[in-house]
Amino acid sequence: MINYILQVILFQVLFLAIYDFFLSKETFFIKNRWYLLATPMLSFLIPFVKIPSFQKAVPQELIVQLPEIFLSPEKVIQNSITETTFYASVNYINILFWVGVAIFSVLFVIKLVKIINLIRTYEVVKQQDFTLILIPNQTQAFSFFNYVFLGKNIDESKRTKIIQHELVHSKQKHSLDLLFFEFLKIMMWFNPMIYFYQQRITLVHEYISDAIVAKSETKETYINNLLSNFFQVENISFINQFYKQSFIKKRIMMMTKTQSKKMNQLKYLVLIPMLASMFFYSSCSDNLSEEVVAKKELRKMYVSVNNGELKIVESKDNYSYFDLFIGVKIPEDFKKVSQNDLTNDEMNELENTLKGAIERGAKLTLEDYEIYQMKNGRKVMFLKLDPNEFNKDNSATEVEERKEVSFLKIDKAPTFPGCEAGDKDCFSKNIQQHFAMNFDANLMKTLGLEPGRKRVFIGFKIGADGNIVDIKARAPHEKIEKEVIRVMDLLPKVTPGEQEGKAVAVTYSIPFTLVVD
Fold it and tell me: What are the helix and strand counts (H, E) for the chain?
């Protein structure tokens, strides 16, 4: 989801950049209005469009998630059974998002109620095409749909032109445009581009009304009338206001501007390469987003026994995209996930798990495996087995250790020196041994870190030539990052991996945990 939101914001930045640099100074007001309405909607839709030919145009690297490494200052690998706390299971980002939605929804309702109160409270004059609301002791002038609001302190001689101006807003449904952006602001209150969009389309609305009304008199007279009066403004973002100080200069400049040449409409063609680039980016970023979501962790087995007690057994060396839940009924706070929503890696693991069970004599199909998601985001496989029957011949640990897990999606994995060709287990063990032997565990004692587990994430690439390149690390302290990169630089050259008979680059990701006493 975060990747999607970032793409939406990026696309809106690019669309607005095109508008500001190429279109905003042109007098194609109607076209610019539709541009400002269409492009934010396109920015929401483009990330869902995946063009296969674009995906094939860029060679994809194979991404591997290695088992997690645990190191303490004494270089002892520690395994413990941990229970998810309430605080770990709460999704604070979701809470923050919905709090923002609630606040902006309340603000919108307050402003809407304010307009309704103006209609109910003050003098209403019904006309053929609109309803005039006269506000005493005010010089306000604005419109909302078919309602035109005028302060009674405005001179009678000025009212006709103001009403003509506001009726253009009413007839062209400009209020719908502003409400559209108001709803976008509620759902994406954290996105500054929505505010910029609303500001620009509000100004375009004024350009359109000025261009139509100014035809009934000389532009000089219209501009003088605009400048010779002071109007109060209403602080509501989804109404069309006749007078807004920040817009006056731009409106006058646009009214005095020569009509744009028809040839200038070719500027809209700038959209074509921009849209192509967006579709290309969106299509090629699909696989990356899948890898970010799918992460292997030590598998836990949850066994629900007859008395309702939940037993948890953590595997010592089995890393998986799923935990395993065995029982008659799944907990109510688990959310069911469709197999269609699983990533390719997750689906491969599920199929390999089924294959292993069938080879051991189980009569199962994919439909016998239900996938659920816990509050902390971790997915679990729910096996429809009776725990009493399950415990007759096997302990939870024994069954867990017999489960087969798909590890890599590559024909032939990179080979560590001294290992047999393509031996993935040997490769992983050598990486772990390399860290245990070369990482300066005493460094942890000098950094003043608080006791507990410290997560480090390592990324590196084994190039098609077998060299270790593009080493990156993220850790709670800069010195740890440097030490990790130093250790990775000591890795020997390996035999590169192969896919379809060709040497390929393989990107590895290692979750790395340091235990500080």
Answer: 17, 18
How many angstroms separate the Cα of 234 from the Cα of each of 147, 257, 322, 336?
Answer: 15, 29, 55, 48
Rounded to an integer, what distance in angstroms lies between the CA atom of residue 270 and that of residue 31?
14
The two structure tokens encoding residue 150: 């005028």
Total residues found in the chain within this entry: 517
Alpha-carbon radius of gyration of the chain: 32
- Beta carbons within 8 Å of 155's beta carbon, 6+ residues apart: 229
What was the pLDDT predicted at 361? 53
Count of other CB atoms within 10 angstroms of residue 43: 23
Q: Please choose, from the candidates 298, 300, 286, the residue with its C-alpha nearest in 3D space to the C-alpha of residue 343.
A: 286
DSSP state of 279: H
Q: What is the pLDDT of residues 404-431, one digit of tens each?
A: 222 345 678 888 888 888 777 788 888 8
Residue 473: pLDDT band (50, 70, 90) is: confident
pLDDT tens track for 58-98: 554 455 555 555 554 433 333 333 344 444 456 788 889 99
Mean pLDDT of the 252-275 span: 90
Q: How far apart are CA 111 and CA 239, in angstroms?
A: 10
Burial of 228 (0-12, 13-18, 19+ CB in 10 A): exposed
Residue 224 CA, distance from chain mean position: 49
Burial of 464 (0-12, 13-18, 19+ CB in 10 A): middle
Helix ranges restricted to H, 360-404: 387-393, 396-402
- CA dist 178 and 124 (Å) reads 24
Determine the straight-line distance between the first and last CA of the chain, rounded to whole angstroms: 36
Tokens of 172: 């062209």
pTM of the complete model: 0.53
Rounded CA separation 168/471 (Å): 61
Estimate to the nearest angstrom the gap between the alpha carbon of 415 and the chain centroid.
36
SS (H, E, C) 214-246: HHHCCHHHHHHHHHCCCCCCCCCCCCEECCCHH
Q: How is residue 7 written in tokens?
A: 């793409």
pLDDT at 356 over 70: no
d(CA 155, CA 158) in angstroms, rounded, equals 5
User: Is 506 within 8 Å of 461 (Cβ atoms)?
Assistant: yes
Q: Work out the number of other CB atoms within 10 angstroms of the CB of residue 212.
A: 16
> How far is 2 from 94, CA to CA, in rounded Å?
11
| Residues 480 and 443 sit within 8 Å (Cβ to Cβ) | yes
